[in-house]
Each structure stands twice: as C-alpha cells, then as structure tokens.
Design goal:
Structural class: alpha/beta
Distance between the termini: 52 Å
CATH topology of the largest domain: Restriction Endonuclease
Strand content: 5-15%
Number of strands: 5
Oligomer: single chain
CATH architecture of the largest domain: 3-Layer(aba) Sandwich
C-alpha cells in the first residue's frame, strides 16, 4: 500500500472513531460510482475521504483485504496511543496522593467542569451511583449494578437510571432518572405510567437534571405523593452533590475515587476515552494547585 493511501486510511479511520454515526450512512450506499455521491455529515472531510477509499477499492487500485488490514492496524495504534496517554495521566495523578485533599467545594467545581464536557450525558448517573457507593455503610442503602447507557427501561425492566436498594434487601426503594434537559410535567407523567406498569413498589422517584427547574414542575411533583404515596422530586445535579459532600465531608475523597473508578470502567459506547482523559487531567490540575 502506498504511503498516500496509508495516510488516507489513517486519517479516515481516526476521524471515524470519533464520529461513529457516519458508518450508518455508509451502509446505505449501494451505487458503485462513489465519487459522484454526496453524503451530508460532519466533518465533511471524513465523508469525502471515505468515499475516495471506497472508490479506490472499486477501481481495483487497492484490495479490500489491504484496506481492512490497514483499518485494523490504525484502530490498534489509535487505541494504544489513547491508553498510553491515560496511563501517563494516571501516573502523574498518583504522585499527588500525599498532597492536601480537595475540599468539598473543590470537588463540586471539578465535577461541574467535567459535566460541561461534550457527550457527558452518562456522567450524572455516575455521580449518583458514586455517592451511594461511597456512603453505603452510613446510608444502609446501595445502588444496583448500572445498566448499559443505551439500554431502554422497557428492555431492562428498570425503573430508572440508578436504582437504590436497602443493604439488607434487594427490593428497590428509590429510583433516579437523569435528564440533561429541563424536566417537564410530561416527564413526570411518563414516570408515573412506568411505575403503574411495574410490580415494584418504591418510596421515592427522583429526577436529577443539569438544567433549570421550574416552580410549576416542582409543585406538580410535590402533588404526586397525595395521589400515589410515592414522593416525586426534581433535583439539580450539582446541588445534590454539594449537599452530599458537605453532609459526608470526611468521605469526600472516597466519593471522588469512586466516581473515577466508575468512569474509567465505562465502555467507550457510554463514555468516550477523551472524556475519561479530561476528568483525570482536571483532577490532576485541581489537586496540584490545592
């Protein structure tokens, strides 16, 4: 394979890793005249280069086997580079362990910065799960194992994104549903319908949002208790975290370590490698300057 095609493959595959949705559009292509096609998507250069690769194979100037082999090679190189970069950050972070621990407010700021990152919709789930895991011995409650990020509640039978049980019992007592947008009355109605279909009986259904909360929605949520005996509430993610960290100030670093552990365990489909690196870099900067 020529160096030109090697570079073309490398650039295209690396872009593709960051923009996986483009593969869905390519699967719909059936015409052999690839260079005559126009695929709408971002970045435009990714789609253009991909069509050039497919046309090169179609014209016989590059074998499908070589293209596949080079694609796999680039994927492995890219993964190795990402893993090495994260490992380097983790080593540097480890050297800050003996420094002054972050304050509760410092941790809130750190998590707030992380939540503002692109593609961060999974992170509030990890915040709540990490809080319960780190304080489980005091709360006498624990979260059930998290479901996959893209798994629907109807598929899993779950009542929410994070389900809380008593330490001594597997029955769900509290369910958390995460929203990266404003919670509406319709969201609450949908939750009530889900609860109505379930055979489980819970005490609390809590919405966690990273958006603003209106008084109308709060009042509506409050009214549910009189109707169904289930306490429904809408909470801001950072306000929840701030109250938790100050209430359990002495285990604040346990929370942070647990959040990091859950984050690094998440598959690429739920939390991209760049988002994991961002957190470790942010924590390294915060602990180095504390």
């Amino acid at each position: 394979m020529s160096s030109l095609l090697r570079n073309l493959c490398s650039n295209t595959i690396c872009h593709a890793i960051r923009q996986p949705r483009f593969l869905l559009q390519l699967c719909r292509i059936s015409a052999p005249r690839y260079l005559d096609l126009t695929i709408v998507g971002r970045p435009k250069e990714l789609y253009k280069k991909t069509l050039e690769l497919l046309d090169t194979v179609y014209q016989g100037r590059l074998s499908p086997q070589d293209l596949l082999a080079e694609s796999l090679r680039v994927l492995l190189v890219y993964k190795k580079e990402k893993d090495a970069s994260l490992a380097n950050l983790m080593q540097r972070l480890q050297r800050t362990r003996d420094l002054l621990p972050l304050s509760s407010e410092g941790i809130v700021t750190l998590i707030e910065q992380h939540l503002k990152s692109p593609n961060a919709s999974r992170l509030p789930v990890l915040v709540i799960a990490a809080a319960y895991i780190s304080a489980s011995e005091y709360l006498r409650e624990r979260p059930r194992p998290l479901h996959a990020h893209n798994a629907a509640d109807l598929q899993t039978g779950a009542l929410g994104d994070v389900e809380i049980t008593l330490v001594s019992d597997d029955a769900v007592v509290t369910s958390y549903e995460m929203k990266t947008k404003r919670v509406t009355r319709l969201d609450i109605d949908n939750a009530l319908q889900k609860l109505g279909r379930s055979s489980l009986s819970i005490d609390n259904y809590i919405f966690i949002t990273t958006d603003a909360i209106t008084d109308e929605v709060q009042d509506y949520a409050r009214s549910i208790y009189q109707q169904m005996g289930i306490e429904v509430v809408v909470l801001d993610c950072l306000s929840f975290l701030r109250h938790f960290l100050h209430l359990f100030h002495r285990i604040r670093m346990r929370f942070l370590d647990e959040y990091q552990r859950l984050l690094l365990m998440e598959p690429e489909s739920a939390v991209r490698q760049e988002l994991k690196q961002v957190f470790v870099a942010l924590r390294l900067a915060a602990q180095s300057s504390e």
